[in-house]
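Retry 2 of 3 after timeout on previous attempt. Resubmitting structure tokens to design endpoint.
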């Protein structure tokens, strides 16, 4: 049985961080079908929301959402501009990743659906390249949920991190053995501390059989 052990959710944290009428800039990286984007729009009516999703099927759903001040891009972010093979799980496409599932993934999560069925070539860029091209000099809030490859996204944002262009970062970090190549919670804390970011809070912790398998980490500049 999967249980939540934190007293509040990431939504509560975000809601309390910004004024609801603020004209903030939000990057939704790993947007899937737009679930998070719809929440951000409800929370912040004047926010400028950029949503990024590399998988064409999911992007088609995302791009058909009708919201003001909302822009979608059929790309993912990584540490270089490239075309990469995205591994697809057709039974649960929210688990698509640049990394293959580990042999223990289904056991860790108590599932049978974590299996790569095919790969699709997708476009990737870096946050630094994108911000330079689009003349974006501040990102108030950035959510990164890319199924184990969050560190690649951060490696492609070194200029933004050094310049403190990004004010608040939410990372979904999978700590249970799920993807080959995923990094630990400690890795992300050390990485972002090296750029002057501090861990603000954990949220949405998921525990399976007494083991923490996933958390959302918030970092502030």
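Retry 2 succeeded. Sequence:
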């Amino acid at each position: 049985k999967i249980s939540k052990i934190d007293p509040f959710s990431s939504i509560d944290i975000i809601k309390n961080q910004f004024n609801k009428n603020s004209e903030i800039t939000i990057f939704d990286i790993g947007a899937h079908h737009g679930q998070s984007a719809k929440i951000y729009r409800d929370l912040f009516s004047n926010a400028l929301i950029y949503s990024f999703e590399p998988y064409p099927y999911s992007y088609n759903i995302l791009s058909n959402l009708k919201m003001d001040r909302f822009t979608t891009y059929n790309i993912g972010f990584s540490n270089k501009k490239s075309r990469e093979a995205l591994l697809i799980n057709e039974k649960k496409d929210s688990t698509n990743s640049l990394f293959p599932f580990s042999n223990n993934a289904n056991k860790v999560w108590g599932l049978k659906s974590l299996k790569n069925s095919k790969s699709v070539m997708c476009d990737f860029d870096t946050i630094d390249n994108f911000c330079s091209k689009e003349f974006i000099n501040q990102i108030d809030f950035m959510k990164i949920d890319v199924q184990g490859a969050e560190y690649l996204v951060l490696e492609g944002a070194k200029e933004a991190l050094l310049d403190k262009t990004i004010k608040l970062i939410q990372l979904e970090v999978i700590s249970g053995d799920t993807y080959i190549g995923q990094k630990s919670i400690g890795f992300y804390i050390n990485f972002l501390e090296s750029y002057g970011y501090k861990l603000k809070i954990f949220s949405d912790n998921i525990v399976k059989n007494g083991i923490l398998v996933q958390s959302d980490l918030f970092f502030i500049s």
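Attempt log closed. The first strand starts at residue 2 and ends at 4.
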